[in-house]
Amino acid sequence: MKTTLPTITCLALGLFSTVTCFAQKPEETEVWEPEPAVVTPGSANNQAPSDAIVLFDGKDLSLWEDKDGNAAGWEIKDGAATVVKGTGVINTKSGFGSVQLHIEWRAPSKVVGDGQGRGNSGIFFQGLYELQVLDSYDNRTYSNGQAASMYKQHIPLVNASRPPGEWQTYDIVFKAPSFDQSGKLLTPAYVTAIHNGVLVQDHVELLGPTKFIGQPEYQAHDAKLPLQLQDHGNPVSYRNIWIREL
Ligand code: MG
Fold first, then answer.
1. Cβ distance 157 to 151 under 8 Å?
2. 51 falls in which pLDDT band (50, 70, 90)?
C-alpha cells in the first residue's frame, strides 16, 4: 500500500520561541476548480486565438460603421484599412467592456508634417479612452501625446516606435470602469499596453475619458460601448484587429 507522508512544518513563534509544528499534505494547496477553458492560440504572426472576435481580417469593415451608423468610408487595400481624411471615425457595431485587444498599425511611409500632425490616429476604448497612434519615430512632441501614450494622461514607459511605413503592434488589456446605480464611480479604468513587444503602459489608472483641453473627469456610461478608431486627417493604416472580452 502506498501512503503519502505528511509534510511537517515547524515554526518558532513568540517571545520564548515556542516551536509549533503543522502536519500538511501537498494536496491541500492544490486547486482544481475551475478548470480554465481550452483556447487554441493563433498560429504565427499574431493571428487570433480561437475565442477572439476578429474585427478586421484585411477584407472588409462589415463589423464597423461611421459615426452616423453608415458604412465605414476608409479605404481597404492590400489587407489594410486606411483612414480617408474627412470620412471620420469608425466604430465597432458591437459594444465592449473589459477587453484584450490586438491591433496592428502603420504610419504613412511618406513623412508629412511633424509633432501631432504626423501619422496621427488613435484607438478609443469604449469610444472614450484614447491610446495614441502617432508616428513617434524621431518626431518629438509632448510626451503624454506621443505614440503609446494614454493621451494627456500617461506617458509611455519607453518609445518603442518603428520607422514610418513599417507595421507596428499594440497588445492592450483595457479594464473598463464601473459605476453604481447613482452614477458614482466604483472602479476606474486601467490599461496595460505592449508596443512592438515592449511594455509601455503598466496597469495605469485612467482619470476619466480622454480630453484634448482640460482635466479628465468620469461620467457614468454604459458597461459596453463601441471601440473607435480615429480619423485625425492622416492616412494611417490598420490590419489584423482582434479582441477578446474579459
Ligand atoms: Mg490621436
1. no
2. very high
